[in-house]
Every structure is written in structure tokens, then in C-alpha cells.
Design goal:
Blueprint: H1 5-10, H2 12-22, E1 26-30, E2 33-37, H3 61-64
Antiparallel strand pairs: 1-2
């Protein structure tokens, strides 16, 4: 559902920042017509990833060489 013209006016800078950050267009209505604010050059999904340096504590290479066989509980026929 498009936002109203009054809502757009009161939150204009926030709406523009959201469009730039997410790449998602925003629709609004003015004079009974539906309009859209969209980025001319869309942002890629990968550019919106947030860095999370604390997710892996230690050397990520250690994960490759771990013995995961005890974690897998598959009953084969």
C-alpha cells in the first residue's frame, strides 16, 4: 500500500535513505495518482551484507579440518 503524500513530506529524508540503503522502491499517492521513488542504479544484495567479524572465534581453516562424523546421525539401510 502506498504511503500518503503527508507521510512522505514528514519523513522524506528517512524514506530517501531507506531507498538508497535497501534498494526497495517506495510508492506514494498524490492527487489520486500513484508515484514511486526508486534508485536509478539498484544496489546488489551482497553490498547490503553486514560485517560480523566476531562470528567465528579462532582460525576459520580449523573448521575445514574438523571431524564432523560424530555430529552426523544418519541411519543407513
Amino acid at each position: 500500500m502506498p504511503m500518503s503524500d503527508a507521510d512522505l513530506k514528514s519523513h522524506f529524508e528517512q524514506v530517501i535513505d531507506d531507498v538508497l540503503r535497501t534498494g526497495v522502491p517506495v510508492e506514494f499517492e498524490r492527487g489520486g495518482r500513484r508515484l514511486q521513488i526508486a534508485s536509478v542504479s539498484p544496489t546488489g544484495k551482497l553490498s547490503r551484507l553486514v560485517a560480523r567479524p566476531d562470528v567465528i572465534v579462532g582460525d576459520p581453516e580449523d573448521l575445514v579440518h574438523m571431524d564432523w562424523s560424530k555430529e552426523c546421525h544418519v541411519d543407513l539401510p
